């Protein structure tokens, strides 16, 4: 990615001191996404325990996913091909639908072959919430720079997405089954929306970032999906005419995993979804799931301290015109944004100090931060898609009874 920022960096740092509480959750949130349902208190602990985060993300253990990703993996390299196979195998084992978008394109070093990996839990669903990151690392022609592993850029985000799929697949399977048993939802035979995860190839420029030497995979996939239009004459369509129009929102993760990130909202139209990630962080932190030994009031006090390791990752939209300061980042989301796809860009601004240097290695990562990101994304996605197994699915064609934990009933009465 490339920054297009004309910012006084001091002003950016001062923004970190503003109040970090999210805006109140709007009562109309459900209108923004029909599948949305808040996670019950009784299910939060279950959500956190869906995977062993250390088994996936602790790079000091060579068998973990993140450890395997921490290698040079430039476009066309043997390492990238091997990792693409590892990622594909991971999703095939989970039972997801696999799409490989392979194509050739011209680069400053001649024609290269690229492969985007697209995984969809329920391809029959008409809408997709897309989570994405780029799998390739930046190409450097000389040593030692050619050993660049891109720990934050974007090995750690890719590991987070693999963990997301592992953790949520049982809940995604269960929701799909419940919808089918209920005769479908939203007037359809099946689910209204599903989760799709994309690993882009060729995000990095080979030389200098230009419109033609950058985001190769994202440009190709957005154009391909926008061109695949079904023109069959049907008066009423339950499914949008092109794959591009099936994307309800695209969330892009990049430059994550270093301590003390600052994540800000770039797009007013998706500010409500940005707030959902902030709310997820706040709820997990208050419950003591993000930082060891911190919960409740202690967490609330700590998350607002400038420079604290446990400081909130997010700059609130109420922090005083953040978007005007943040500018725009050129990244894999741009071709989709230009086609009208709603985007949330989870990227640290300012960029990590190690950006595009050989120092963007394991030493740049902070394991508690990486684990916190995985849980934040997991909770936000679970609520967006209404995955709580203990809660009723609100839009079933034939509503069914769901037994709820007595603790949740007491919480409802108290509220």
TrEMBL record:
Entry-linked InterPro entries: M28_QC, Peptidase_M28, QC/QCL
Keywords: Acyltransferase, Hydrolase, Metal-binding, Protease, Signal, Transferase, Zinc
Biased composition (Basic and acidic residues): 401-415
Keyword Metal-binding belongs to the record: yes
Region (Disordered): 395-415
EC number: 3.4.-.-
Pfam families per UniProt: Peptidase_M28
Record family assignment: Belongs to the peptidase M28 family.
Name of protein: Peptide hydrolase
């Amino acid at each position: 990615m490339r920054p297009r920022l004309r910012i006084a960096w001091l002003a950016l740092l001062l923004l970190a001191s503003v109040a970090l509480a999210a805006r109140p959750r709007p009562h109309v949130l459900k209108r923004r996404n029909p599948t949305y349902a808040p996670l019950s208190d009784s299910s939060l602990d279950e959500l956190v325990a869906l995977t062993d985060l250390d088994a996936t993300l602790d790079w000091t253990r060579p068998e973990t996913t993140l450890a395997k990703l921490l290698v040079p993996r430039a476009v066309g390299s043997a390492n990238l091909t091997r990792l693409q196979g590892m990622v594909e195998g991971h999703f095939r084992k989970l039972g997801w639908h696999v799409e490989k978008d392979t194509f050739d394109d011209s680069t400053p070093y001649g024609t290269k072959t690229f492969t985007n990996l697209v995984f969809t839990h329920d391809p029959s669903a008409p809408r997709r919430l897309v989570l994405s990151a780029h799998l390739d690392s930046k190409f450097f022609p000389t040593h030692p720079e050619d050993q660049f592993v891109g720990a934050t850029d974007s090995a750690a985000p890719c590991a987070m997405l693999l963990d997301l799929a592992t953790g949520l697949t049982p809940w995604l399977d269960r929701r799909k089954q419940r919808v089918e048993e209920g005769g479908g939802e939203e007037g359809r035979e099946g689910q209204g929306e599903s989760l799709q995860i994309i690993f882009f190839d060729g995000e990095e420029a080979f030389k200098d970032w230009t419109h033609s030497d950058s985001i190769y995979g994202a440009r190709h996939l957005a154009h391909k999906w926008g061109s695949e239009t079904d023109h069959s004459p049907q008066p009423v369509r339950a499914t949008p005419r092109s794959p591009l129009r099936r994307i309800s929102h695209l969330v892009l993760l990049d430059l994550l995993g270093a301590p003390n990130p600052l994540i800000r909202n770039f797009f007013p139209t998706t500010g409500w979804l940005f707030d959902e990630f902030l709310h997820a962080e706040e709820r997990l932190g208050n419950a003591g799931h993000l930082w060891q030994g911190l919960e409740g009031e202690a967490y609330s006090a700590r998350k607002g301290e400038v420079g604290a390791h446990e400081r909130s990752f997010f700059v609130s939209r109420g922090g005083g015109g953040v978007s005007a300061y943040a500018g725009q980042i050129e990244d894999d989301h741009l071709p989709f944004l230009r086609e009208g796809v709603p985007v949330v860009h989870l990227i640290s601004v300012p960029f990590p100090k190690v950006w595009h240097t050989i120092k963007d290695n394991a030493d740049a990562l902070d394991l508690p931060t990486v684990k916190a990101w995985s849980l934040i994304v997991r909770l936000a996605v679970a609520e967006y898609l209404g995955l709580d197994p203990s809660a009723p699915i609100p839009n079933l064609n034939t509503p069914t009874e769901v037994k709820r934990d007595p603790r949740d009933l007491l919480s409802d009465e108290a509220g």
